[in-house]
Amino acid sequence: MLLHQSTWIEIGQFLDRSRTVVIPIGSNEQHGPTGLLGTDWMCPEIIAHQAQKDADILIGPTFNIGMAQHHLGFPGTISLRPSTFIAAIGDWTRSLAAHGFEKILFLNGHGGNIATIEAAFSELYAEASFARRPAGFALKLCNWWDLEGVGELARAQFPTGHGTHATPSEIAITQWAYPDSIKTADYSPRIAPAGPIREAQDFRARHPDGRMGSDPALATPEKGGELVALAAKGLVAAVHAFSGEAMPD
Ligand code: NI
Question: InterPro entries under this entry (predicted)?
Answer without folding.
Answer: Creatininase-like_sf, Creatininase/forma_Hydrolase
